[in-house]
TrEMBL record:
Keywords: DNA-binding, Transcription, Transcription regulation. One of its GO terms (molecular function) is DNA binding. It holds the Pfam family LysR_substrate. This is HTH lysR-type domain-containing protein. Residues 1-58 form the HTH lysR-type domain. Belongs to the LysR transcriptional regulatory family.
């Protein structure tokens, strides 16, 4: 089995488009089609439904999905380990939500490299679901996410909560003005969204909703508006941003998660003090 065939299957599932998958994998659309056909022929089953221009997984494709992810991740980790196979070198695989890289993981990496300059570090942007799946498969050492998990074998440690404040590019705005047409809703996790709904359930749905705080900061710098951001983001803003004085402050918890049966347990525990 060619590992690139499984990568192609995963990318077609992610993009739900043969052309986009081809672009992301730097091959032609005909190559994507040929790889999928090869995989389907080898399994003797259709993996995708192709109806009216839409692509979706069949039942067989859904069954293959998690197995394909595990195989590809294991292969990537094995290849990395072999590349750095000297006894004195260690490799740490860390997954994080995009927004949490900016809040915690980037600074943690600086501290890690200061303490262990020879450590091989591999960081990836992954959803919470992908992190949990890979932690259980032991192809990821550490995950950083907004919600705690109670999955067997996974240890969850709470990080210091992040204070999210409502800021605006316009000085002196009141809450009702900041939550107007130029308000940007940032998805800081399910907890934040629930608190936001309880506090502002009567406002019109925001016209702009972004998954990453860094995107919102860039938008405010270029277009102006208002958004809930951490103080650290506000301090590095190119454009002055002003707190909305009558707005509530939300405290967003975050968590680091690792597998207590993982091969790098001692290394992880020695580095957690730099983060927690």
């Amino acid at each position: 089995m060619d590992i690139d065939v499984l990568r192609t299957f995963l990318e077609v599932n992610r993009t739900r488009h043969f052309g986009k998958a081809a672009s992301h994998l730097f091959v032609t659309t005909s190559t994507i089609s040929a790889r999928i056909k090869l995989l389907e022929d080898e399994l003797g089953l259709d993996l995708f439904d192709r109806k009216r221009g839409e692509i979706g997984l069949t039942q067989a494709g859904t069954q293959l999905l998690s197995q394909a992810e595990t195989i590809v991740n294991l292969w990537d980790k094995a290849r990395q380990a072999v590349a750095y196979s000297q006894p004195e070198q260690q490799v740490l695989f860390v997954g994080s939500l995009n927004s949490l890289w900016s809040l915690f993981v980037g600074d943690w990496l600086i501290k890690i490299k200061s303490k262990k300059p020879d450590l091989i570090f591999r960081g990836e942007a992954l959803s919470a679901e992908e992190q949990i799946h890979r932690l259980l498969a032991r192809t990821l050492d550490v995950g950083v996410m907004f919600e705690p998990t109670q999955v067997k074998d996974l240890v969850t440690c709470e990080l210091a909560p992040t204070e999210l404040i409502l800021v605006s590019s316009a000085p002196g705005q009141e809450l009702s003005q900041a939550l107007g047409p130029k308000y940007v809703l940032v998805d800081w996790g399910a907890g934040f969204i629930n608190e936001h709904q309880r506090s502002f359930g009567d406002i019109e749905p925001p016209r702009l909703r972004l998954a990453m705080g860094a995107w919102a900061l860039e938008w405010l710098n270029k277009q102006g508006g208002a958004a809930y951001l951490p103080k650290a983001f506000v301090q590095r803003s190119v454009r002055p941003l002003f707190p909305v004085s009558d707005a509530p402050v939300f405290r967003q918890p975050s968590y680091v998660v690792y597998n207590e049966k993982g091969a790098n347990l001692a290394l992880i525990e020695s580095l957690l003090d730099l983060l927690i």
